[in-house]
Write a sequence for this structure.
């Protein structure tokens, strides 16, 4: 595969470009990395045939399959467009896992076999929109593998997967690479590049800066710069403080909690209490109910009123509004990013965090604008303030949504795989901000992740949900 002089314009509002001169990809699988604004995501879109190009691309062996956040977004948008909830007078959870796999191949045995290996067997007849974040990633991966590609384009394929699924997928990808399937593996964080990939390409500000064998790349100054992150200035001062709770009031408590969909029991007999001053981490395999639990906490799940829940001094179901709950919560998760579809600029997306809305539908004070700009500046992206939110890369969007959660200094900061899509330097900046906020007792942390982050210093108690 040979790539030369490529220029792409994927967004008509913002001029993006990626330039590659004389890169011979043939014969090897490649890891591709770089900062969030480097253009590496555009490379996948280009190779997948989703973007126009100038120049030449030769030797691309089809079929080509894609596992990326952009591919996931396309599937989500298609399912939302075809939502028939209003027509059938019930919630339409979209096409089933099996139906979406059979779009690729009608060989049901292959679909069911791969579903079993990925831990999707119990969900084979569930609708797409009922899946958790990790389960959705598994489905995207399954669809790509069922195509039996000669070239497999990947963007952090392990993100959102539990340990067992990660180990299986890593072994499978290594086997595919050795058997002659070419992998183009884009990784936001250099430390996540699989050890068995021997060639690395580094992109910088829209250009291929280096492409060589692993040993040469690891010895380069460019490689060292990818992990550089430092922020010595204090975080912006909170704009407002929430009223304190009575001494014995929990931040959140659920008693004998249970959630089920028909015969599918997500969890049952859950007794859990977050005391004031406590930080928690929630762990468990894909499908164990982590996403469902967070929806109960945020008031976004229809079964939250059929459970005994006390939160922020209020008994759920006794006249409180969902906004009484949300105003004390800052949330970041993949679902928010997928559903943040309004056309706004970056600073408006950040300011929407003060009002717990998607977009802003009220007058914005200068105080809010200044405070939002201070946070953007702290993260080093103040120059993006007036850029369209959807013109950003996936990682830059995630960073903006993290800032959106931080601006109101929430009583409870809920972060569900928050570093997904972030490069190493931005990930370290986010961890620094979290550490300082927790140390200052501005917010309490509820953290959901399949991976350990040594840079997260907050002491967290652990809630482990069973499969």
């Amino acid at each position: 595969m040979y790539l030369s002089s490529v220029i792409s314009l994927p967004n008509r509002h913002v001029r993006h470009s990626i330039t590659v001169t004389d890169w011979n990809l043939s014969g090897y699988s490649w890891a591709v990395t770089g900062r969030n604004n480097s253009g590496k995501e555009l490379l996948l879109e280009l190779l997948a045939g989703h973007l126009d190009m100038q120049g030449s691309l030769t030797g691309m062996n089809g079929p080509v399959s894609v596992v990326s956040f952009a591919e996931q977004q396309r599937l989500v948008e298609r399912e939302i467009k075809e939502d028939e909830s209003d027509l059938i007078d019930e919630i339409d959870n979209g096409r089933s896992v099996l139906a979406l796999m059979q779009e690729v191949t009608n060989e049901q045995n292959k679909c069911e076999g791969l579903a079993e290996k990925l831990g999707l067997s119990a969900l084979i007849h569930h609708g797409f929109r009922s899946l958790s974040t990790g389960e959705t990633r598994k489905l995207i991966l399954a669809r790509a593998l069922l195509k039996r590609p000669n070239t497999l384009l990947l963007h952090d394929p392990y993100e959102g997967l539990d340990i067992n699924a990660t180990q299986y997928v890593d072994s499978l990808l290594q086997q595919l690479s050795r058997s002659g399937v070419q992998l183009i593996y884009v990784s936001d964080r250099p430390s996540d590049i699989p050890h068995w990939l021997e060639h690395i390409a580094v992109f910088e500000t829209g250009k291929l800066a280096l492409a060589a064998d692993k040993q040469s790349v690891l010895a380069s100054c460019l490689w060292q710069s990818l992990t550089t992150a430092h922020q010595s200035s204090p975080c912006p001062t909170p704009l407002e403080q929430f009223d304190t709770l009575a001494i014995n009031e929990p931040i959140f408590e659920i008693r004998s909690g249970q959630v089920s969909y028909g015969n599918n029991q997500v969890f049952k007999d859950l007794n859990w209490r977050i005391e004031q001053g406590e930080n928690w981490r929630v762990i468990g395999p894909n499908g164990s109910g982590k996403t469902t639990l967070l929806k109960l906490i945020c008031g976004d799940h229809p079964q939250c009123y059929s459970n005994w829940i006390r939160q922020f001094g209020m008994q759920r179901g006794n006249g409180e509004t969902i906004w009484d709950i949300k105003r004390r919560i800052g949330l970041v998760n993949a679902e928010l990013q997928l559903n943040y579809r309004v056309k706004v600029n970056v600073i408006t997306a950040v300011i929407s965090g003060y009002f717990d809305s998607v977009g802003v539908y009220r007058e914005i004070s200068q105080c809010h604008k200044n405070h939002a700009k201070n946070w953007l500046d702290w993260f080093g992206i103040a120059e993006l303030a007036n850029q369209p939110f959807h013109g950003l890369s996936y990682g830059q969007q995630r960073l903006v949504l993290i800032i959106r959660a931080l601006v109101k200094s929430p009583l409870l900061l809920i972060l569900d795989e928050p570093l997904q899509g972030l490069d190493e330097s931005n990930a370290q900046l986010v961890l620094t901000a979290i550490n300082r906020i927790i140390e200052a007792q501005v917010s309490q942390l509820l953290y959901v992740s399949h991976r350990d982050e040594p840079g997260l210093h907050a002491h967290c108690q652990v809630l482990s949900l069973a499969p």
Notes: The chain is about 35% helix and 20% strand.
